[in-house]
Amino acid sequence: KALSIGHGALGSPLRSERAATVPADHGTTLPAPSCTSSGLRPLEPLLASIDLIDAAYLIALGEAGGVVPRWQDVPAAARINAASVWRLRCYNVVFPPILVLSYPWLDRHHPDKHGATLRRILPILCACREAALREGVHCTFGVFWDYMSLPQGADRSEAECARFKPGLATMAACYVHPYTYVLSVRTPIPDGDYENTRPYEKRGWCHFELRTASMVKDSLCLWDLSLHKEGTAITFYKCRNTLQSTRPPLTSPEQMARELREKKFTNDADIDVVASLYEQGFVRAFDTFRQYST
């Protein structure tokens, strides 16, 4: 990944709405976790420096054959931030309606220049959106997609740099929360003229994201896209039950630092940054989420 770089195409029209979380398709009753710091509230302060993206916008963009824009070019109506977080407060207080993406960047300057990743995740986005709409016409899911959620590019302004630094420093919280939904895009690299064709498993940023997401994640909330048959529809209930990823063993910050040096980074200077982010996430996981339901 090259979070410090990026020049994206402009987005296409938005269909905006609001947010809910996890109504199961077949009347399944969700367990009430014992975690007292679960839900949306621990994440709301992050929205001062991180934007979530309305799933409705991404669906419209993908169906139109579009390409995701960098943060600077995301339409205002597509952003879920501190001013619009009310859209994510309308249903389940435990499972926040947030989908966090873990995926390989395909080029240094744009992670998905042909829209292949966006098209692959469209069925999952649609499933999340449909689940939210059961709670009302203004409901939606917020999506953390780094390229759109944080300022990008070597041409960032001073204000954008001031926003990027705290956003990068706190992004691990999106992954580590026990009840955010994390989708790991572990499908084969798509065909095309891409600079970086290393698989997910060999990427340093992807390794960090998956291990961070696995610390205290509820078993229903860690999803592996490779378990979904590409091009087929899926319901939210099936996402929660058929895309479940096996959680790797808990890794100490010291061990993670060693493992990261065996992975590939576009910029080797990122290794120490990512190791520090993992350590922060590790501490947050066990300071904030001391009990959780699996």
Describe the structure.
It is a single chain. The protein contains nine helices and six strands. It is α/β, with parallel strands linked by helices. Strands 2-1-4-3-5-6 form a six-stranded mixed sheet, with helices on both faces. Helix 6 links the parallel strand 5 and strand 6.
Relevant terms:
six-stranded mixed beta sheet; 6 strands; 294 residues; 7% strand; 32% helix; alpha/beta
Instruction: Measure the end-to-end span.
Output: 31 Å
Query: What percent strand?
Result: 5-15%
Assembly of the depicted chains: single chain
Number of alpha- plus pi-helical segments: 9
Written as H for each helix and E for each strand, in order along the chain, the element string is: EHEEHEHHHEHEHHH
Percent of residues in helical segments? 25-40%
Cα-based radius of gyration, to the nearest Å: 17 Å
pLDDT < 50 runs, ≥5 residues: 2-36
Q: How many beta-strand segments?
A: 6
Shape: globular
* Biggest sheet character: 6 strands, mixed
Strand order of the largest sheet: 2-1-4-3-5-6
Summarize the SSE layout with pairings.
Blueprint: E1 52-54, H1 55-63, E2 79-80, E3 98-102, H2 116-133, E4 142-144, H3 146-149, H4 158-170, H5 172-176, E5 181-184, H6 204-213, E6 222-224, H7 236-242, H8 253-260, H9 270-288
Parallel strand pairs: 3-4, 3-5, 5-6
Antiparallel strand pairs: 1-2, 1-4
Give a quick precis of the structure.
The protein is α/β, with parallel strands linked by helices and 294 residues long. It is 32% helix and 7% strand.
